[in-house]
Design brief:
Helices cover about 40% and strands about 20% of the residues. Helix 1 packs antiparallel against helix 5 and helix 5 runs parallel beside helix 9. The chain is of the alpha+beta class. The chain is built from 15 helices and 16 strands. The structure holds adenosine monophosphate.
């Protein structure tokens, strides 16, 4: 029996790889323009990092982590998200000594053991940015604007930007008590999951998609109406920066994100065409995370976006992918015996900086020409015995179908 790819994962095949290069290059181009530097952290970390960072009672930590023991019995986890690892590296490498404010980005696979469905995988790719070391509301606005610029560069349309403030340690604490009080006598009507959330993470009840819970939370008190003065001011500054940049957004007072570390600004970017898994990205401020992970109190804000979901939107909106770059030169041999000469020429062409290939199977010239055609090569160089003995080869322009004999010494110039 053939072994299949694990559930919720997928191969990125050669015919699709140019799309990935294209997207990754655009992401890097925009993020560099905004002054972010790439950081690459390991694909796995000590489990504790995520438990402490993301929050013990979150869905990710309780249900979705791929956790395993190494040979010495230490618990490791495939990274389910990028922020906690970046903060770990920031602290471990004392990056605050490099500069007061650090701007980092990452790009790569994340792992969550979720129920696979359209737009939801167990291994998926995210790009994300983090600005560590500032509480400025301009940084919150910049994070949103940066990611919108990536989407714009890729041609994505009709995106909805939802924003909210989830407050800080002080005002949220009081609000959660208020929310719990409101939910207390309605608890028995909540879904099973929300009953559990009521105890462990009441804010998450606001985010429940089940109709029965939605009805209950429709008239729940809103965090936005219970913010402290500082959080209120911060939120209005973020909105004003966005207004100034003509960014159209919607305030969603029920928006809370799946990770516990958010404070103040929380936001999500939605594409209507995606169905249930409609978020293509999200982020917010996380002013307590760095202290939570053992550093000194340091404000920060960031964003993470799913690349597969972005690709689904690109396909749905029928945005044209750029043409794949074809081979410059195909080298064909008139007879199998000419392989040595053909191989020498192939390397000569490559060494001159052109892309070139040949067919290593023992096939006729006719079938090699078919392969050359399929490869999209601009030129085919045909190596035949008679010509080669005169230090010549045949050069065929694949577009005009013209062919001529050229001196081997002149070949590179001709190409
Ligand atoms: P999160 O880290 O949960 O805020 O997710 C940020 C973004 O990553 C989401 O908006 C999605 O675009 C993407 N994402 C999260 N989980 C998955 C998943 N299981 N499969 C594919 N994309 C995902």
């Amino acid at each position: 029996m053939l072994i299949k790819v694990p559930k919720g994962t997928q191969d990125i095949l050669p015919e699709d790889i140019s799309k990935w290069y294209y997207i990754e290059d655009r992401i890097k181009e925009i993020l560099n323009k905004y002054g972010y530097k790439e950081i690459r952290t390991p694909f796995f970390e000590y489990t504790d990092l995520f438990v402490r960072g993301i929050g013990e009672s979150t869905d990710i930590v309780t249900k979705e982590m791929f956790t395993f023991l190494d040979r010495k019995g230490r618990s490791l986890t495939l990274r389910p998200e990028g922020t906690a690892p970046v903060v770990r590296a920031y602290l471990e490498k004392s990056m605050d000594r490099i500069s007061k404010v650090i701007k980092l980005f990452y790009l790569g696979p994340m792992f969550r053991c979720e129920k696979p469905q359209s737009g939801r995988f167990r291994q998926f790719n995210q790009f994300g940015i983090e600005i560590i070391g500032t509480k400025s509301s301009a940084a919150d606005a910049e994070v949103i604007i940066t990611v919108l610029d990536v989407y714009k560069k890729l041609g994505l349309k009709n995106l909805e930007i939802l924003i909210n403030s989830v407050g800080c340690k002080e005002c949220r604490g009081a609000y959660v008590q208020k929310l719990k009080k409101y939910l207390e006598d309605k608890k028995s009507f909540l879904c099973l999951e929300c009953k559990e959330r009521y105890n462990k993470n009441p804010l998450r009840v606001l985010d429940c998609k089940k109709d029965s819970c939605k009805k209950i939370i429709a008239s729940a008190p809103l965090i936005i109406e219970n913010l402290c003065q500082e959080c209120k001011l911060h939120f209005s500054e973020v909105k004003s920066f966005l207004h100034d940049q003509k960014i159209i957004f919607k305030e969603d007072p029920k928006l809370v994100r799946g990770l516990d570390y958010y404070t103040k600004t929380a936001f999500e970017i939605i594409s209507g065409g995606l169905g249930a898994q409609n978020a293509i990205g999200g982020g917010g401020r996380y002013d307590d995370l760095i202290e939570e992970l053992g550093g000194k109190s340091t404000p920060a804000v960031g964003f993470a976006a799913g690349i597969e979901r972005m690709m689904i939107v690109i396909e749905q909106q029928q945005i044209k992918w750029p043409e794949e770059k074809a081979l410059d030169v195909f080298v064909a041999k008139a007879k199998d015996e000419n392989i040595e000469a053909a191989f020498g020429l192939l390397q000569k062409i490559r060494n001159a900086g052109l892309s070139a290939d040949m067919d290593y199977s023992e096939s006729s010239l006719k079938s090699q020409m078919r392969i050359a055609n399929k490869s999209g090569a601009r030129y085919t160089v045909i190596v035949g015995e008679e010509e080669f003995s005169k230090h010549m080869v045949i050069l065929r322009n694949m577009q005009t179908k013209e062919q001529k004999e050229v001196k081997i010494d002149d070949l590179i110039d001709q190409l």
